[in-house]
Amino acid sequence: MLEGGLVAHRPYLIVGPSGTGKTSLALQFLLEGVRRGERTLYVTLEEPPNEVRVNHRGLGPELLEVEVFDAIPDIMRYERVPFKDVASVRHSLRFRDVPLEIRLSPELAAVEVTMTALEQMLRTEVLHRSYSRLVIDSLTALQYFCMKGFDPVAGAQAFLRFVSDLRVTTLLTVESPLEDVETPERMLARGEIRLFRWELEGRTVRAIGVEKFRGSSHDVRLHPYRIGRAGIDVKLDVTISRDTRQIIETVPLFEPAAAKAPVPVPAEARITPLDPLAEEVRDLVLAGVDVTALRSEVEAALESATTGEMNRVRAHLARANALAVDLSGAVRDLPLRTPPPDPTVADAIQRIVNRSEAARAGFPPTNLLPPKLLEVQLQWVLSLLPVAHAEPVPLPGAVPEPLDTAESVVVPEPPAGATLPSEGEIGAASPGGVGLAVDAVVPPVIPIPESPETTPEVEERGAPSPLEIFPEPIPEPTPEPRYATGAEPSIGPGTGTPILPPTPTATDPRAGPGTATTPSLEPLASPETTVAPTPSPDRPSPVGEIAPAATPSEPLPAVEKLPVPVRSPTVAAARPMQPWSPPSLPWVQPPIPEAKTKPAAQTSARPVPPVSAPPPGQPSPRAAPPPAPGQRPPLPQIAGPTPAAIAPTATAPWAAPAPVDRGPPPAARVAKGVVPAPTAPAPKRKRKSSSSTRRRATAAPATAAPAAATVPTPLRETSPEAGALPNLPTEPPPAPVTSTRPKRRPARKRRAPSVVAVRPGTPPPDSAPPSTPEPAEPAPFDAPAPSSSPEER
Amino acid sequence: MATEGLSPERRVATGVPGLDRMLGGGLVAGRPYLVTGGTGSGKSLLGLQFLLEGIRHDEEVLLVAVDEPPNEIIENVRSFGWDLSAIKTLDANPGTRAIRRHMAVQEIRTMTDLKSMRDHSQDQKRSSDSEDIAIQSIQLKLRQQMADRPYRRVVVDSITSIRRFAIKASMDPQAERTEIQSLLRFLSEAGVTTLITSTPSDPGLLTPEEILTRGEILLTRKWVGDRSVRQLKIVRIRGCAHDPERRPFVITDQGILIS
Lengths: 793, 259
Hints:
The structure holds 2 protein chains of 2 kinds. Chain A is an alpha/beta fold. Chain A contains 44 helices and 14 strands. Helices cover 56% and strands 9% of the residues of chain A. The radius of gyration of chain A is 30 Å and the shape is elongated. Chain A starts with 10 loop residues before the first strand and ends with a helix. Chain B has one domain: P-loop containing nucleotide triphosphate hydrolases (Rossmann fold), CATH 3.40.50.300. In chain B, the strands form 3 sheets. In chain B, strands 7-5-4-9-10-3-11-12-13-14 form a 10-stranded mixed β-sheet. Chain B has a two-stranded antiparallel sheet with strand order 1-2. A two-stranded parallel sheet of chain B has the order 6-8. In chain B, a hairpin with a 2-residue loop joins strand 11 and strand 12. The longest helix of chain B is centred in the last third of the chain and has 17 residues, at 173-189. Chain B is globular and about 45 Å long. The A-B interface holds A 18-20, 23, 46-48, 51, 53-57, 61, 64, 72-76, 78, 97-100, 102-105, 138, 140-141, 144-145, 147-148, 175-178, 181, 199, 202-204, 229 and B 1-2, 4, 6, 9, 30-31, 136, 139-140, 174, 177-179, 181-182, 185-186, 188-189, 191, 203-206, 208, 210-212, 214, 216, 235-241, 244-246.
């Protein structure tokens, strides 16, 4: 919240009513100092040191190293006894040496604590022991009990001034029963951390906020916290509204934090009765299942909640729950012989299956919240749903992607320049910022309905359509990011040659591993997978590595293995730099890792197409670009089970990418329901669907979803990568310029062949699809993608 | 001195089973606590239950009665059938305020001695001199008593009245704060677990006892239709995990029952 911490050598206030954890927070500050080997001093004016020691023993053994100065006055004798100055009588002790029993006032003398004495003590102590962290607990007690003859306000001012002259980072606690009282110390301190405690509907809510922080930007929102044995624990991914005091789900402010945020957000929500539904929805979306019908029910429930018709809300929610049960049942019945390549998807499916077994009897009864809270909850669930529709792919990659998205949104948007990027961003954004991005989400929803409607019913006939939908969307995101990045271009032109060599090598291992690992690699992996298509079973170790690289979380490992150290760095650099695309050449060679990973993916994809071309796919790919996308998605799903299938899936994604963004973009558009793409995409979809249908006739929707998910994942990965992972850089480079894409594609194809040569022919089908998509897709991509994104938005 | 294996602090049962549960076993011994609530919210009753629990454990207990004269307290709980005779009482209920300001004000410590409840006759105090109380006089009185009677539990009912009635204190807020701090410190050092009752102050005004006590229990009563709904909440407590929610309670002849 402070964006890195307090500015050293300044005094700060911790303000709040009693019992909010001011002392805990202050002690945690000191303990951190102890952990860093600093000297720390705790001056207590309220709570006797022995009680502090006992009460806060849960903070850790470091507490014993904190030095404490007991500035609590003795009992007044009301007799003529000599008064002694606190500074001359007492010294600071380590908590280790603090007796467990309370200190007894001496019989013959009383120690008086005055502000001046305290200042004198602090000056000497700080001078001789060079403390770097100091806590005064509390300034209020100092004002109340130690300022005889001073005006408390003037005294506080003088004391703060004195403290800031000490040049020690100081926390002063202030008791403040009211929130709005402006006190002099609040004006003087360089920063104020405020602790709130409210009673909301009978429950106690604690919140922490940075009210003032001079010399640094900071998080101005309120976040809830808990006080546990180990001190204060702030939940950064949840925000509390300052006026309504209601909990708002938020996306993390900062990308780094955000990276792992997506998962936490759901966890937070578990407090609410709608959580079971939300969890199911999240997993369904991850699995790529069409949730249009579900969404419409939730929308209806939200509408009813707004008008306060709680009975209708219950009815809609019951229906939504029933739909969720049905959908999860469909997923359970899917003929999945092999786990989907994407671990995220695989996990989601596993959860769905587990739950559907247990939840056949229905979801737990829903205890509805009061309308206002319920609305927030429903909106939250809705936000999950739309995301799914708009960007099935993103969901799979959700964990990493959200972050990426956020990042991309923040920074990348401009680079997106090309339509594709924008789409990718949108997609990513929606997943990440569920709560916030409601607007964004909504637009997608609209388009979704078209396809989604079919989806639910269409298991058989609809299956294709849904599948198509998913696949298409999926490809879009991925490709877009890549294009946006402009990585491809770089690869194509300069990197192309260099990349090719590396790529092959990389590809082989990656391909193998990637396939195996599939999940993490999604973007890259998919391409790789194509190369080493079936290998999924084989799961070469490299793949695993690769996969990680692809995934935000895992990327690092991947990078390490394949890319070697070099790659990881490059990757890191690459993310931020969409601009890198141009530099790609230099990049590629040294950073090869990154370039390889991403490029490799791309390259591999490219190669793959060629490979496939050699066997069966060459003609088919180009000729039937549309089918390629469709097939791919289905294939992936199928592939999951069967090697061949896997290969297709992988290929499909790749192909989409490899064909260059164009291929995927159209699909994405289509999926999203973008109007522009319709004509061209439609055919493709149909074809795809048909293909998919054949293979997945039964579980068309669910299967398709998974497949879509898998495919999307890659795409997403790519997009995420741009933001978070090394892979991203590669992808990003391509993204930048549309013009480059065509060139790149060719390059890829050429490269691809080489790669292909290396690998077996399994991928042919896959490769074929990709290649096909490429030609057709390109045009749609550029034009439609942009249009679609704006529209949706 | 003591090593890290700190033994869990000693807990003191409050005499209200539900409250003990909310506190995770009772109040930490030897510390002062604040009980706040409006008039009629059950503060005094909680204090009496706390003292009776002490009697049950053969502890020396003391009630500093400022709000109500002890004889009234006895009558009030008679309907419950409680026997308060073992509770030592310091009758700090100020006498009829003299109308003439210049009349000598005698402090209670010079006037009153500690008596058991059974010693309190039905009569009101009949002293010709106006008595007044000061926080320091309570501390001094207790100090005298502590020498031969190690009190384990003390209830001050209520500090708001002390502040309101004590002439000295009202004249110098600074001195009042210091005296309250000294009193609480004295009780802490003596190892006494203290309950101090207080009526809610002006929300913007922070009282010294709010700063110095180690915990606060809030009793509220509100009217729903023609029924009064009583609630108890642990606002804060140092050093022990507790139930932070508001809990409804009822007053029966068993005293406070928290559901």
